[in-house]
Amino acid sequence: MRLDDRLNDRWFRLDEPLVSAFVERWRPETHTFHMSFGECTITLQDVAYQLGLPVDGRYVSGFLTDFHVYIDGGRPAWQWFHELLGVLPLANQIQKFAVNCTWFQETFGECPEGADEETLFADKSGNRIHIRWLPFVARLEEMGSYNWGSAALAWLYRCMCRVANRHVVKLAGPLQLLQSWIFWRFPGFRPAGYDAFSWPLASRWSGYNPGISEKGPRVQMARLKIDLLQARDFIWMPYSTPDVLQVVHPEVLEPRHTMLWWCVTSLIYFAVVEWHQVDRVLPQFGGVQPPPHPALNIDFLMSQEASERLCP
Asked: Can you give the residue ranges of the Aminotransferase-like plant mobile domain (predicted)?
């Protein structure tokens, strides 16, 4: 169920030193990268073009506390799991409410004989999958009605904000989205030989493998290149060219979707709520950037709302 596995066999490997150097420029208070030429960031527009995910619809959320009590009107979670998948994982494959991905791969990695198009099987990806996804698996026909684009961006924002803490040493989240954004926006970091592209645009880097050279020197080189960047080294509107527009799925360009790209709004992914501050990066939409408003502190706003509820 991981969003960053959408491209499956057309995916690419992560360039960890490059991504690490860019994350150092991330500012949690604004959700933007602070560069020498100004601010830039990953927006809902980038998610729509890069991954082809919907950016409107129902928010991706649900109960996380007392999960086993509230799921599906009180039905025991593991009972529902068995009804949906026909089998339960062994105890050593479970950590609280998360199941090892290796179990899914071994159990559902091959399509059984006589299976129809509704048969469920999983890709091997990551370490564990939380069974909070059961409601979505149980209603596959409704999956397209959810705002997966906002969920992916909210989770990426949250993961980059977490790693800004010096005590956090590992970065999670849909990092291939970040890397593809870097390649499309910063030609100086783009690997050679990947000129052809199709839909979704992140598939352009299919098969890319940065190699296993020493990470330390590569991080330092990436930092130096970022320090020397100027405005001409950043492509503000990479999706406006005819060769890109001719491969884009036409539904992405419908006004009911594109109008959301400009919205300063909240992005929701279960308990994660992050702010989409496109008012600080208007040149990415062809606009002129005025002096930005002070950054919105969504954690402060939520704490204020909680206080008002407790003290009417």
From this structure: 14-295
229: helix, strand or coil: coil
| Alpha helix ranges (H) inside the chain | 16-23, 44-51, 67-70, 77-85, 101-108, 134-138, 148-163, 175-185, 215-227, 242-245, 255-261, 298-310
Please tell me whether residue 272 adopts helix, strand or coil conformation. Answer: strand
**Six token digits for residue 195:** 């000129």
- CA angle (301, 304, 309) in 5-degree steps: 130
Neighbours of 229 (CB within 10 A): 16
* pLDDT mean over 207-217: 81
pLDDT over threshold 60, residue 289? yes
Q: Which residues contact 191 (CB under 8 A, 6 or more apart)?
A: 183, 205, 208, 210
